[in-house]
Amino acid sequence: MARRSRPPGFEMTYRPQESVFGPPLSARIPSVVYLLFALGVVVLVLLGEASSSGTWVFRYVVEEDTRRVMSIRTFAVILVVSSLASMVRTGMRGVRIYADGVEARDVLALVPKLRRYRWPQIDCIVLDGRHHIALDLWDGSRAYLPDVSDRAALALALEHIAAARAIPVRGGTLAPDELDDELAPD
């Protein structure tokens, strides 16, 4: 059976390109500091094992290791693995815009939290807050999206999608004629 061809530019619904907005730098700093500390411990262990037997580093790392409950090598490995897990956990935060809606990813008390909002659920996109972007939902509730590194780009992307899907926007930055120009096919 042959498929019908559609005229150019004809689509059933507007489907935006997928885009991901990661967490801000302020959320990444603790994980980076933790990783640097863990790498510092690894350097200390390697330096202690390579130094001569009379130095304080050799005594602390090698000679006193027999009196410890956990060896310093094991401690260094646990620190590195833990800091890498912290970096991955931090990277799980953010907002993803996909074809069917918006996905808010956050980590609360060691548990990742994923909330998906489909376009028909969204009654209004609220951009007038200084730090947060909110979605007014069809059931009367308001959902706040997590902080992202590039709030302006996220707001602009949501504003374009809202214009294409006829979702009201409160506090947008673009004038209606600018949105029409950007949404027009090339």
What does this 3D model show about the protein?
Mean pLDDT is 83; it is low at 1-12. It is rod-shaped, with a radius of gyration of 25 Å. The strands form two sheets. A four-stranded antiparallel beta sheet has the order 1-2-3-4. It is an alpha+beta fold and 186 residues long. Helix 1 runs antiparallel to helix 3 and helix 4 packs across helix 5. It has helices at residues 25-50, 56-61, 72-91, 151-165, 176-183, and strands at residues 19-21, 94-98, 101-108, 111-118, 122-126, 133-137, 142-145, 169-170. 40% of the residues lie in helices and 22% in strands. Strand 6 (133-137) and strand 7 (142-145) form a beta hairpin.
What's the N-to-C terminus distance? 32 Å
Strand content: 15-25%
Tell me the strand order in the biggest sheet: 1-2-3-4
The number of helical segments is 5
Overall SS class: alpha+beta
Summary tags:
alpha+beta; 4-stranded mixed β-sheet; disordered N terminus; 8 strands; 4-stranded antiparallel β-sheet
What's the SSE blueprint?
Layout: E1 19-21, H1 25-50, H2 56-61, H3 72-91, E2 94-98, E3 101-108, E4 111-118, E5 122-126, E6 133-137, E7 142-145, H4 151-165, E8 169-170, H5 176-183
Parallel strand pairs: 5-8
Antiparallel strand pairs: 1-2, 2-3, 3-4, 5-6, 6-7
Give a nutshell description of this structure.
By secondary structure, the protein is of the alpha+beta class.
